[in-house]
Design a protein that fits this description.
The chain has helices spanning about 15-30, 40-55, 65-70, 100-110, 120-135, 150-155; strands spanning about 10-15, 30-35, 55-60, 75, 95-100, 110-115, 140, 160-164. The protein is an alpha/beta fold. Helix 2 (about 40-55) links the parallel strand 2 (about 30-35) and strand 3 (about 55-60). Helix 1 packs parallel to helix 2 (about 40-55) and helix 1 runs parallel beside helix 4. The longest helix is centred in the last third of the chain and has 14 residues, at about 120-135.
């Protein structure tokens, strides 16, 4: 982890697996964090508590526009569409937004194979990671197939390669 976010405040929308991991990743890189989830479920409350225990601020059941407007950027969990009502707020128009995958990839800083397409992504991702490991290369697969890339980026040491 050689990149720093010191002095930044990162907003994270969505507290499922990827959002929680993104919040913890931002904290690990020295940022302040405000994370929120519009849902008020037991899982969201538990994730918010883990973010708080890691040193961030988190709430469920709402998004605080004022807090988000003060962030240096907003990280969107995969479940947050660009058309989400919170993102239409005029106060947030100037705040840069990034998806969790890109946010984690930039901080991970290792060669990455990214698989796209309509069919077969999960299979090809798992196969590519398997082939790298069979060749003696430390590789981790993640993204929307189980392990958030932010979770992989929190590993110490980082894998030599990522496949998403």
């Amino acid at each position: 982890m050689n990149r720093t976010l010191a002095g930044e405040t990162i907003g994270v929308l969505g507290l499922a697996r990827s959002g929680e991991a993104a919040a913890r990743l931002a904290l690990a890189h020295g940022a302040g964090v405000y994370a929120s989830d519009a849902g008020d479920t037991p899982a969201a409350r538990a994730a918010a508590e883990r973010v708080r225990q890691a040193g961030g601020d988190a709430e469920v059941g709402r998004h605080d526009v004022r807090r988000l407007a003060g962030c240096s950027r907003i990280v969107l969990s995969p479940g947050i569409p660009p058309t989400a009502p919170i993102l239409q707020e005029p106060a947030l128009a100037a705040v840069p937004r990034v998806g969790e995958l890109e946010f984690a990839w930039r901080l991970l800083g290792v060669p990455t194979i990214a698989i796209t397409g309509t069919n077969g992504k999960t299979t090809v991702t798992a196969l590519a990671a398997h082939l790298l490991r069979a060749a003696g290369i430390d590789a981790a697969e993640g993204g929307n197939i189980g392990t958030a890339l932010s979770e992989i980026a929190l590993r110490d040491p980082s894998p030599a390669w990522a496949v998403v």
